[in-house]
Specification:
Surf1/Surf4, 276 residues, 40% helix, Surf1/Shy1, membrane, alpha/beta
Length: 276
């Protein structure tokens, strides 16, 4: 026979078999592994962002190299090559210059990026994003006025960037655009348009700086906020640890409330007047 104290304890916690408490317990049991997995996912995001930040910092801090050491016609710029500083010697070809639509500057103003072919000494072409200019009007159908680049042979420096695609950027490559306007910077498309050997990817120009501060050079890429993902991971794991603690607190409060209600009922019966 079970001791009376054990039987009393079982009776006290019989409410855990009620429909309400069974559902609450199952939800708690499901929340714990879910929150743990969310914390692990956030930690993976933290590691990925930290690695990308380090990759960008290493690329921007590396010594500039001739562009043809990093890319060639038909080359797909890899993740480890992105943002690497390169130099090129040649001349700008403004006759085949185009603008890239729907681009914003640091103040979120909508305008264009100026994409100018840069003819190297060996005849190959490097696509140079010279920076941002405002649109002339709301229609954006006429070709905008673009400040001319330096004439003659010069040396440009820039950050190497991969070809833009719809999948990577989310920008649709629309057809039927006004003359000399494009949506994406893509070396293969520009090679067909120019009928020339175009180096894979393009560069975002950093030097020489334009006269009159226009086009507005594209700013240095910022660091991703990896610390936020780390904080989210710790937060999810704290939530996971808090679920069983909260469940125990609710059980004890329920037991206390039921015991108080039972005691009050017993007192009412004891103090109730006897029937006549």
């Amino acid at each position: 026979m079970r001791p009376m104290t054990e039987l009393y304890g079982l009776c006290v916690y019989r409410f855990l078999l009620s429909r309400q408490w069974v559902i609450l317990t199952l939800v708690a049991l499901l929340l714990i592994p879910t929150m743990i997995r969310l914390g692990i996912w956030q930690m993976h995001r933290y590691e990925e962002r930290t690695a990308r930040n380090q990759l960008v910092a290493d690329a921007l801090g590396a010594k500039p190299v001739p562009v043809e050491e990093m890319t060639s016609p038909g080359h797909a710029v890899a993740t480890g090559e992105r943002y690497h500083r390169v130099t090129a010697k040649g001349r700008f070809d403004t006759d085949d210059e185009v603008v890239v639509r729907r681009r914003t500057n640091s103040d979120d103003e909508v305008g264009y990026h100026v994409l100018t072919p840069f003819v190297l000494d060996d005849g190959k072409v490097l696509l140079v994003n010279r920076g941002w200019i405002p649109s002339d009007g709301p229609s954006q159908t006429a070709f905008p006025k673009i400040p001319a680049p330096p004439r003659g042979e010069i040396t440009v420096t820039g950050r190497l960037m991969p070809d833009e695609t719809t999948a990577a950027s989310g920008i649709k490559n629309l057809k039927g655009l006004p003359d000399r306007q494009i949506m994406l910077i893509n070396s293969e498309q520009e090679a067909r348009r120019l009928d020339a050997q175009v180096l894979g990817g393009y560069i975002a120009q950093t030097a020489p700086e334009p006269k009159g501060d226009t086009p507005e050079l594209i700013g240095r890429p910022g660091d991703e906020n990896a610390a936020l993902n780390y904080a989210y991971a710790i937060q999810w794991w704290l939530f996971a640890a808090g679920v069983p603690v909260g469940w125990v607190i609710l059980v004890r409060r329920e037991r206390r409330d039921r015991a108080a209600a039972a005691s009050a009922t017993a007192q009412e019966k004891e103090t109730a007047p006897a029937p006549a």
